[in-house]
Design goal:
Helices cover 23% and strands 35% of the residues. It is of the alpha+beta class. It is found in: Cell membrane.
Length: 379
């Protein structure tokens, strides 16, 4: 069994607390991605799991064994590093066989196992080449083959795709996922790339300032972020500041910096009181856009025209900039001195130019709200 249990894991470097009280159980055969910005503690956590760093406090169990104080060579783990760490003076097959040699496996058997592993990563035709002559993606496959050749209980990957270009990285993400499904081993993968984590992970553990902030399946952490940091880190969004103006049994009305009232739907009207400061998150995927000449009219107060009980919101703004991003177009829209962005597919984008007035609409049920301390409001 290769279930991993981290309990109260901590790492200090002098007065610097790099990892603080990290506790998580990683299931046998699971692929967990540790996701976070630079300096969040994710690589330090992985290095402690690998035995390359000794925890200041806490314990690490792999299966039923406490490996907290064991060096790397006494653990049933293998690590793939960011720079792949291939030996330039050895051939590809010698690189893959190196770990087996260190384990005392005979020459004939280790070459057979190394060649078989190269076949599984589609690199058998490069067995006798110098790894320095390979492309980045080929080096990555060799590094994976070398790590998997020793049949580890746990494979640890420290940002292994960060040196690849975007297209190759995306291809390798799919291959890594397929390799994980084939080998059915426990993988722990460190990355700062949100798309990479969502593509690979069974579960994602989000780290910030040395803390493991939230752990969950990809759709869970995206749809239900625990706090404002996670909401902002997982993808682009429009953060809008506001103050609760009044509540009803099924809605909350928030006066915002957009110069307009935003209506949220709620099943929990007692969650907020009048005068509470909020940050609202308006994700681009919940926003629809049309010409300002279309849609509902504003009432005499300058607020959106809303029927009682409706949580449909709309505002009018002026397109400031148009940014083409391949398959999508991003529009920067000025609304009462505040800049928002909306996105449309290229096929639907041709009607708006800088200077055009557009109406942006969304359903209040799709808005996320956060308190001043960053915590999520349960609406």
């Amino acid at each position: 069994m290769s279930e991993i249990t981290l309990s109260g894991l901590e790492k200090r470097y002098g007065d610097t607390l790099a990892v603080e009280d990290v506790s998580v159980t990683i299931d046998d055969g699971e692929l967990l991605c540790l996701l976070g910005p630079s300096g969040s503690g994710k690589s330090t956590t992985l290095r402690m799991l690998a035995g390359l760093e000794t925890p200041t406090d806490g314990t690490i169990h792999i299966g039923d064994e406490d490996v907290t104080d064991r060096p790397a060579y006494e653990r049933t783990t293998a690590t793939v590093f960011q720079d792949w760490a291939l030996f330039p003076h050895k051939t590809v097959i010698e690189n893959v066989a190196f770990g087996l040699k260190m384990e005392g496996v005979g020459k004939t058997e280790r070459r057979e196992r190394a060649r078989g592993m190269l076949e599984r990563v589609r690199m058998e035709s490069h067995a006798d080449e110098n790894p320095m002559n390979l492309s980045g993606g080929q080096k990555q496959r060799v590094a994976l083959a070398r790590a998997l050749a020793v049949n580890p209980d746990v494979l640890l990957l420290d940002e292994p795709l960060s040196n690849l270009d975007k297209r190759l990285s995306e291809d390798m993400q799919i291959e890594l996922r397929e390799i994980h499904e084939e080998f059915e081993e426990t993988f722990v993968h460190v990355t700062h790339d949100q798309d990479e984590a969502f593509t690979l992970a069974d579960r994602i553990g989000i780290m910030a300032e040395g803390n493991l902030v939230q752990v969950g399946e990809p759709d869970e952490v995206y749809e239900n972020p625990k706090n404002r940091f996670i909401e902002g880190f997982l993808g682009d969004t429009n953060f809008v500041e506001g103050t609760v103006e009044r509540t009803t049994p099924d809605s909350i009305r928030v006066e915002t910096e957009l110069g307009r009232e935003v209506v949220l739907s709620t099943a929990n009207p007692d969650a907020l009181t009048e005068g509470t400061s909020l940050t609202l998150s308006l994700r681009p995927e919940i926003l629809s856009t049309e010409s300002a000449e279309s849609g509902s009219e504003d009432d005499a107060t300058g607020r959106p025209a809303l029927a009682d009980g409706s949580t449909t919101n709309s505002i009018v703004g002026t397109v400031e900039n148009v940014l083409y991003r391949g398959s999508t177009v991003r529009y920067s829209v000025a609304v009462d001195g505040t800049s928002m962005f909306v996105e449309r597919t290229v096929a639907d984008s041709g009607e708006f130019d800088a200077g055009d007035e557009v109406r942006i609409s969304w359903d209040g049920a799709d808005v996320l709200a956060f308190r001043d301390d960053g915590s999520r409001v349960d609406l």
